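quick one, 443 residues, struct below
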Amino acid sequence: MKRPRFMTLAIGLAALAAMAAGSLAAQPVDDTQLKQAIVFGRHSVRSPVAPTATLNTFSAQPVPDFGVSGPGILTANGKTLETILGGYYRLWLTQEGLLTGNDAADANLVYFRANVIERTIDSAKAFAAGLLPAAGVTVNYYGPQASDPLFDPVGAGVALLNQDMAVAAVSGRVGGSGQSLSSAYASEFALTRSVLLGYPAGQSPPPAAPANVVDVTAIPIAVTAGSAGTPVGLGGLLTVGAAVDPFLMEYADGLPSSEVGWGQLTAEGISQTSRVSNLAIDLEERTPYLAGVLSSNLASHVVRSMVQAATGNALTGSLGNPTTKLIVLIASDTNISALAGLFDLDWLLPGYQPDFCSPGGAIVFQLRQSQSTGEYIVRASYVAQTLDQLRNLTALTLAAPPAGAPVFIPGCSGPNATFDCPLGRFVRLATHQIDPDSADLMN
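---
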């Protein structure tokens, strides 16, 4: 039997949100009340995702030890940072009146879900410990060998990725030649090479790579069909991304300065090298065709959860139930980037590159209701600890919060300072952006 798709209920969904279909008038005073928050965040600080043995072939010196059992594991500081972050959300959401401060009661109002990867599950548990320290919170997740349809719809069989279309879509963004990226990002490649091979940036001519080291910046960049977990292959660009991945994590985890890029990188240099890994994610996840396939199912569930909360009526394809006030979803930077690509969302926080998904950073959707008109609106933002807040394990308070920026939702947001978007208009936008063949109401 054919499974129900998003579009089969699109008309009914729009009708449920008709109460919010009006245009939002700019108001000098914010009279809205927070009714639901959806936090879609990345895991916190981890060890590099590539094995140490592989990374050591890319550099003249061995990579530092993160004190965990293997690649891609949440560090001890990563857990602490996520608990600190959860504690900040506790303060904010209690101030907003969404949570009461009674942890046992509030635990019935939250829904947590993490991707199957260990670091995302551990991050979600640490966030929950900071949010509701006196209550047990259930973190929902699939088994380690399963594919969660929210975060891996292709692996779960909800969405079908056309490899030829994926390659064409990405190739079209790089002028038909991935190698053109080497010149467009020449300064980032040069800085990366100098750090990996241990010579001063700007040295001319640059020295040859030692015989036992792979010069990752010389590997050709080519757009090819992807493999498991990788929508498209990008040749050397993905290898360079893996090689620079440790730098930001070294800084954020508080390693000594001598071990951050072997003493050659400041926070500014780390940000510059991250442009390469951010580029790879942008091409793989934010390319419109790929964003539609990879995030339509998640977007469907997010939008339906908002409508369910606004109407108070149970709605198929929602997360939690009509009384759920907080939804926390923890996954990876790739997942967040894909959803951002679907809605064309952009952000910029101090110290990071545009649209960079920092450890613990999250897209936050607020469902708010005007107390004067009854209208429901969606307010989006990106919230993340700064690099120095991560490095220093900085306590977060309402007076000293993480960094945050309002996010404009193209085709929906109004011209006010918080870029508010009427819920009905957001539903219509989502119905247009979501690929009906990549969304499943049941999963």
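The first helix runs from residue 10 to 16.
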